[in-house]
């Protein structure tokens, strides 16, 4: 025993290390904080196409069409050849309290085109709408309403020469009031004016399809006006009030003007509902 103690002491003195062997179990608790930021951009595009097929068996229809052409071409106005009067043209306390279709044209000039055109097609809609469902399609039985109005107005290659102090006067006073329906008024003291009030109306009480179309073309080209000391007066006073319906008014004191009121109406009282 004494020798062993002396051996250990010597080993320590010479710096000799003795390895140590051991089994170790290690338990660790870890806490972690993490911040996450997400930026996301989403774009959604959708194309939706609707294809609607209507299979229509027509039983009754209302169709109205109106076509008007007005032209002033190669006209010449010279006071040395035309005797212009100074007398005024007057509509006074007239064309009131009417029901229906009213058309008025007034002109003191030369070579004026004026028109009031009405085209009507109306059915009472006695044939009611019904439908059959065959092979995934609805077959409708009903009517249609179609209205079309077209107008073409042209002033071309006209010459107006006025050198006298003639007075041309158009006057509408206390007139064209309290009317019901379709009212058209044209008034002109000039020369070579085109004026038009046009209505096309189609109505069907049980129409499945209602179509309305209107076209208007107007042209002024290569015209000459020379005027000195001339007086032209258009006056509408206390008129065209309290009317109900369609009212069109054209008024011109100049030369070679195109004026038009064109209306196209297609109407139905039927409302389609499919479940």
In short:
With 275 residues, the protein is mainly beta. Helices cover 4% and strands 53% of the residues.
Please explain how this structure is put together.
The structure is a single chain. The chain has 1 helix and 16 strands. It has 275 residues and is mostly beta strands. A hairpin with a 2-residue loop joins strand 6 and strand 7 (137-156). It starts with a helix and ends in a 7-residue tail after the last strand.
Number of helices: 1
Radius of gyration: 45 Å
Main β-sheet, in a few words? 4 strands, mixed
Q: What fraction of the residues are assigned to beta strands by DSSP? A: over 45%
C-alpha termini separation: 111 Å
What is the number of domains? 1
- Please tally the β strands and state the result: 16
SSE string:
HEEEEEEEEEEEEEEEE
Low-confidence stretches: none
Helix content range: under 10%
How would you describe the shape? elongated
Keyword list:
mainly beta; three-stranded parallel beta sheet; 275 residues; 1 helix; four-stranded mixed beta sheet
Topology:
Layout: H1 2-13, E1 55-73, E2 76-77, E3 89-92, E4 99-107, E5 113-123, E6 130-134, E7 137-156, E8 159-162, E9 167-173, E10 180-188, E11 194-204, E12 207-221, E13 224-227, E14 231-237, E15 244-252, E16 258-268
């Amino acid at each position: 025993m004494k020798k062993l103690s002396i051996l250990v002491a010597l080993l320590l003195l010479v710096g000799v290390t003795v390895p140590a062997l051991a089994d170790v179990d290690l338990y660790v608790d870890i806490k972690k904080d993490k911040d996450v930021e997400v930026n996301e951009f989403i774009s959604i595009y959708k194309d939706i196409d609707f294809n609607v097929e209507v299979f229509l068996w027509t039983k009754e229809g209302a169709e109205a069409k109106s076509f008007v052409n007005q032209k002033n071409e190669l006209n010449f106005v010279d006071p040395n050849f035309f005797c212009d009067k100074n007398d005024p043209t007057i509509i006074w306390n007239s064309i009131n309290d009417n029901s229906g279709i009213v058309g008025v044209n007034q002109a003191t000039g030369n070579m004026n085109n004026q028109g009031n055109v009405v085209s009507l097609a109306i059915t009472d809609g006695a044939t009611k709408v019904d439908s059959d469902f065959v092979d995934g399609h609805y077959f409708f039985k009903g009517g249609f309403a179609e209205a079309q109005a077209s107008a073409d107005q042209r002033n071309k290659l006209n010459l107006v020469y006025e050198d006298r102090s003639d007075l041309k006067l158009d006057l509408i006073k206390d007139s064209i009031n309290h009317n019901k329906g379709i009212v058209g008024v044209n008034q002109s003291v000039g020369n070579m004016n085109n004026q038009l009030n046009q209505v096309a109306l189609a109505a069907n009480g049980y129409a499945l399809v209602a179509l309305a179309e209107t076209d208007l073309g107007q042209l002024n080209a290569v015209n000459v006006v020379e005027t000195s000391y001339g007086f032209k007066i258009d006056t509408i006073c206390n008129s065209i009030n309290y009317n109900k319906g369609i009212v069109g008014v054209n008024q011109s004191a100049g030369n070679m003007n195109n004026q038009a009121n064109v209306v196209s109406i297609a109407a139905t009282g039927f409302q389609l509902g499919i479940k």
